Amino acid sequence: MTIHNKTLRDAYPGGLAGAGGGPGRAAGRGTGRGRIARIAVRLPGPTLRAVPWAPILAASVVGTGLVGWPALSRDDLSAALLSNLLRLAAVCAAVGAAFLLDDPAARTVQTTPAPRLLRLSMRVAVALPVLAGGWAIAVLSARSAPNGRQLPWVALSLEAAALIAVALAVAAVQLRRDDRAAGPLTAIVVLTAAVVAAVLDEPIALFPPPGDAHWGPTHRWWALIAVSALSLYAWAAHDRNRRRRLRLPVRARVWRGRAG
Amino acid sequence: MGARWWQTRAECPDWLNRLIGRRLPSRELDGEEGGVTVPTVRVEGLTRHYPRMTALDDVSLTMHDGVVGLLGPNGAGKSTLMRILATAMAPDRGAVTVLGHDPLTAAGQLAVRRRLGYLPQNPGFHNGFTAFAFIEYVALLKEYVGRRARRAEVTRVLAAVGLHDEQHRKIKKLSGGMRQRVGLAAALIGDPALLILDEPTVGLDPQQKLRFRELIATLGEGRTVLLSTHQTEDVMTVCQRVIVLDRGRVRFEGAPAHLADVARGRVWESAERVPDALAAWRTGTGGYRNVGSPPPGAVLIPPTLEDGYLLLVDEPAGIEATR
Amino acid sequence: MSQVPQLPGGQHLRAMLALAWFDGSRLARRPVVVAALLVLCPLAYLANADPAWRFAVLYEADQWLQPLGLLLGGVVLIVSNLAVTRAHRDGATALLGVLNLPSSWRVGAHLVALLPLTAVAGLLVAGHIAVLAALDGSVGRPSVFELATGPAVVLLSGAAGVLLGRIVRGAFVAPLLTVVFVAYTIISLAMAPTSGPKPNWFVPVIGRAGGDPQFGLPPLPSDLMARPAGWHVLYLLGLTGLVATSALLLARCRRGTAVVAAAASLLVIGVAGAAQAGAPGRSDDATLIAVTQQPGVHQKCERIAPVTYCAFAGYEPWVKQWDIVARAVLRRTPAAVAKQPLAVRQRLDAYGYSRPADPTPGAVSAPLPLERWRAEDQAAGIPNAITASTRWGDGWSEASLAGRLAYELITRSGPGAQADECGARGVLVGWLAGQATPQTRAGLHRIAEFSGGRIYFAEANFPTGIGLSDRVTALVWQLLDQPVEQIAARVRASWAELTAPETTIERAAQLLGVPAPPATAPRLLPDGTPDTTGECA
Asked: Domains in chain A: how many in total?
């Protein structure tokens, strides 16, 4: 291979052949056990720069403001209203999370050995602290309101986590079908689901006011929703394109010449 | 001969080997086993449907070392075939073997991806990254966990595509041709044994195209490079083999020279436009070049690769040339 | 951007309309819009469906679909924003930028494409109110401006989506903005005092002026409603104009016309906003108090022997319904009793409009203006007119009217009766009310369900009422299960004894031939003390 740059020619006197020499050799590559861990440890850096921060930050700020401004500027918000505002902040966080898995470089990195689940989950892991921070501030503002001292913030946080998990699951499923941006469609689905959940009435109400008789059973349902959404996400975020239709595997050795 | 299938390491399935504790047989690429060369890619009966069309219809081919060109009109299935070989898509039916592995199993997919470089059509990047940072990211995803090795590899591939001086510019500030080269550099990481390049010369100026052809030709030694293109010059200058795809079927598989031979005796010149030629166009010298069934008494001229291609993609039945 | 050749205006217009048609049909075909129109809206509508809608008060009913206008508006905001940012997201901006139709005309096409959806929303609203008005129990006339508010909100939301798409390229802004609007709306609705001088008109949609049918304020007579709905619609249209011209200006349209349009919109917003903020949300306090104390001024009376009915203007269709209930009650009384003159007058407590909602329990409410009512009734020649409310069809109103009629027949005590009945009188009142019509019977069940098992006959929305004790209620249910004619015969036979104040419940049970309900232990309040409400001496 001709090296056009004189400097490089001097730097690589032996030519720009593969560092390991010969095709397909993998020197300096971690391919043994624990390769996933070793990649995962080094991945947060580039992922931090690759994540689309605009939707995440906007969602956190808007959600926090939605709760914080009314809660801190007025004294007369009831506990039910405060918990509904917190739920709206959770919906904001879910809308932000809907755009989290959009990756313009998806097609370029799709065929790398690193697992797709690792790549996508690293994005989630990197953005989650921001969303969680915004949520914490919102909860603190709500609890500082006069009627909010007794707000059941653990249950509301479970609802928020479930909503975010649902957004991620829907985005992952959509990406499986069409690997361009899944954000807008996922945001619409999340909002629609939130509206449907909000208009549900007893006994299947998903957003009961605090102190309601159905509070406990409803939050068991929320836990189930969260777990199901996470499982769906884990399934949808895996590398695809294996075994599209059920076929018996054709053994590779058929194509090899017989040994001996 | 005489040994049972479970007694021979190569014949025994992997899971049984592992169970017994045997060392798994190494899957050497293109090695000589019993004097038979093993193809890099082998495809048999590949079929893939989209909701309203069939992209690949019972495609069977093999590829060995060297540069293979994939020619075909739009919608012929070139990209689909490349994506299937690059483990980016699964077929509906058919058997695929890439580098000795079945890319439709998890282990096979991983093994293929370790020795694969793929440049998709319209590659996307993280535009806020510098070229170096993006290639380093891809290198990390290609399992270059050691920092020094990774950076060395990044420098190597960027120099190979000629982006050494621009490596610290943000991708959004690079021109289209430079971005294409960034994509190519990403494909070159890890010195892959199989390079799949989908329309790689889009957006390159003639000088860059020249350099690119040089690079590909060098890479073709000892590796398999599959590139799809519309430009017959790429095929003529660089490819050792050509595959012509049209509407999901293989129309031709062989050397470029033989593709031109397909049109031998079916290209002629005339002073005016002839109505029953398959394709006719006005040449720079004022006459008309016609491809098709020549009328008696026509002046035949030597065919080019393009003529052969035109004939193949317009005729309903393909013409198979021998290798 | 290079100079795009200016085609004659007509060709731009035709191209814009063609593009608008294309965009509009894409907008209407989006799954979320279809789902909202065909699934969400009907679901939300049915979830709030009420049998009382057969007797809709149309100048209240015209507001019912406004919250659905908000829902559709949210959807339209997001999809119109997606349509405008589509070009950027798909990387086609540079390609579209050099086409012959300038970007300002393209934005205009996006705006015009909203009109079909607005028209669909308008059709839905019009159809709904037409159906309600066609029912023969409907009262009053709807206000066109109230009906137009829903579609105006849809148009405004769509225009806002287009403007947002020109300002910010990200697709995440529109959903977040929708959530912000929802939050603003629920805070405004929650914080809006149900009484109080002026509701927050700047919220695009007003919460029900009548409040909850069961516990809230019934509708005011139509000539007392002073809602600036017309100004409100104008305000919304002005906002839409401002938003649309801003979007066009951002797309570099011709300055002159657009700036004039924007200025005009600002003017409209200012004028309409001031007008609706300054207009009284409801009539002033003096009028409301006058209506409460002397409702006859606004009413016309109709006599269907032996009962006289006085209803507010527009409520005449309900007189027939009241008469059905009255006849059914009178049918079971002895002839002599049934022939005595009775009167029913529509009244409502408009004090609730001007008095702030009372948060502390046990607060003493203002006394009823009984003297004034009696004076008014005397003047009209119909002494002791009992109260009917401005609601009908929800079960409560029918049962309350029947119960109060029965009580009047028995005790001749007039309006404002407040009593706890534990004896035979209570049994009689309960049975007469329950056997009248199937609706009164269903209404009794609803009342009992709500008030924890006891029957209670309210008086419109005044705090007075006639309550029946637990044992009386139990006996009433028993009696209602018996064949009606049998009990009716026994009632007529022992009318005098049953209506005497000192007759006990056991004696009543004996007279009517059913076993007396057992004496029950007094109920306990949550803190353990016995609940003495409703227990008489």
From this structure: 1
